[in-house]
Each structure stands twice: as structure tokens, then as C-alpha cells.
Amino acid sequence: MSGWDRIGSLVNEIWHRATTAQPTAEPLVVLGALALVLAVLVVPWAWHLARHLLTIVHESAHALVAVLSGRRLSGVRLHSDTSGLTVSVGKPRGPGMVATAFAGYPGPAVLGLAAAWLLGRGYAVGLLWALLLALALLVVQIRNWYGLWTVLVAGVLLVAVSWWGSAALQVAVAYAVTWFLLLGSPRAVLEMQAGRRRGGRGSGGSDADVLARLTPLPGGFWVGALLLVCVAGLVLGGWWLLDGTVLSRP
Predict the structure, then answer these.
(1) Are 219 and 209 in contact (CB under 8 A)?
(2) CA pseudo-torsion sign 32, 131, 46, 210
(3) From residue 40, how far is each of 15, 37, 53 by CA, in Å?
(4) Number of C-beta neighbours around residue 38 at 10 A
(5) Separation between Cα atoms, residue 131 and residue 129, nearest integer Å
(6) Distances (CA, A) of 213 to 72, 93, 136, 222
(7) CA dihedral defined by 146, 149, 153, 156, rounded to 10 degrees?
(8) What is the DSSP string of the chain?
(9) How far apart are CA 64 and CA 59, in angstroms?
(10) Nearest to 169 by CA among 204, 125, 212
(11) Is the pLDDT score of 185 beyond 90?
């Protein structure tokens, strides 16, 4: 078999796994993943470690909306304190810049909502491969070593679970990632607001403050708007995750 044949066979195998629906998750798996994520959210060291995933999605959302709004993407940086920076070139003001600045915090909630929709249709493995593809698209835009390391580690973990993990592990990881995106997004907004109040990291440079400078509306309004979108994503996505698994069981 030639090299191209091997590549074609590998792609076909990945496509088959990604597009094959898995059985509905057991309530214990769904609730267990939820409990694990809630623990991560309240344990400081676990939250700091896991928050890198939110930062990856946050900055990816900035980057995607920047490109969709006609801006030229210059690069993405991810830092060890879980902050990040996405740089794009274009008009310094206007709807495109506002949309780009707004997109970051809702990004994980929107992705979590899409993930919940996929899980509701049995595509847990498909979700994992879709996340891996997104990381592959992001890695070429990373402009610092720590960011590259973070994305590569996340990618290796996803490959390990998607290719070598058992079906039960794949489903459990897919639900845990989805719960984390949904629950972590509103917490990140609250964390941003706490930073604004105490004048710490991100004070004056948070997304809400950037939006306040771009529009006539104050930063507090944008904090509320960002939180509203994230909570709405959590409520709807959480319902989708529980409906058909936990709520529909006798």
C-alpha cells in the first residue's frame, strides 16, 4: 500500500468514526461529567489549569469573527496566566470591531451549545474530532511558544481519546468538555467583572472595557450582555444535555 493509500485509509477511518452515532449516554455518565466539572470550577488549581481550554476557545472566537467581519488576522497569543490576545488588522471602529470584541466570552457558550446539539444526536466522537480540527486550524495562527505548547497538548489529549480511547471514555470526555464550556463561560465573565472592580489583571483592557470605548454604552452594560448570552447558552445547552438522558428516564 502506498503512502497516499495509507493516508486515504486513515481519513476514511476517521470519517467513519466521526459520523457514526453512539448510543445515548447513561444518566450516570451525564451527571458524573457534570459533577466533575462543578468540582473543577470550585477548586482553584483545577480551574486555573482547565481555564486554558476556555482561553483557547475565547481567542478562537475573536479570531473567527474578525475574519468573518473582513478583518485580517495577524495572530493569537495564549499566556500562562490564562489570558490571551488576538490581533487583527482593519478599521479601528465600526460593527466589525465591535463584533470581534464581543465574540470572545460568548465563544465557549456557543461552542458548548453546538456540542450539546451534537451529543443529543449521538455524535460524541464526531464532536471530539471536530474540536481537533478546530485546534489544527488555530495552531497556524499561534504566535508565542506557550500558546503553541498549550494547543499542542490539548490536541494530543484529544487524539489519544478519539483514537485509542474506549467508546465509554470518549462519550464521558465529550460530555465533560461540553459541560465545562457551558458552565465555564459565565464564570469567566464574572471573573472578568471581579478583575475590573479590583483593578487587577485586565482592568481597563477587558473585552467589556474595549466595547465601552468602541460604543456609547458603558462597560457594565457589556458585562451584563456578555453574561446574559453565556447564561442563555448554559440553560439551553444544559437542557439539551439532560433531555433524552436524565430527564426522560423513569
Answers:
(1) yes
(2) negative
(3) 32, 5, 12
(4) 13
(5) 5
(6) 21, 9, 33, 11
(7) 160
(8) --HHHHHHHHHHHHHHHHHSPPPPPPHHHHHHHHHHHHHHHHSHHHHHHHHHHHHHHHHHHHHHHHHHTTPEEEEEEE-TTS-EEEEEES-SSSHHHHHHHHHTTHHHHHHHHHHHHHHHTT-HHHHHHHHHHHHHHHHTTB-SHHHHHHHHHHHHHHHIIIIIS-HHHHHHHHHHHHHHHHHHHHHHHHHHHHHHHHT-TTTTTSHHHHHHHHSSS-HHHHHHHHHHHHHHHHHHHHHHHHTTTTTT--
(9) 9
(10) 125
(11) yes
Tracing cell 466539572 back to the chain, one arrives at: 37
The model carries a pTM of 0.93
Q: pLDDT per residue over 6-49, tens digit each?
A: 888 888 888 988 998 888 889 999 999 999 999 999 999 999 99
CA angle centred on 32, ends 30 and 38, rounded to 5°: 105
Closest CA relative to residue 246, chosen from 22, 39, 35, 25: 25
Q: Which residues pair with 88 in a beta bridge?
A: 73
Say how far apart CA 44 and CA 30 lie, in whole Å.
Answer: 23
What is the per-residue DSSP string for 94-108? Answer: SHHHHHHHHHTTHHH
Neighbours of 8 (CB within 10 A): 12
Residue with grid cell 465533560, as numbered in its chain: 176
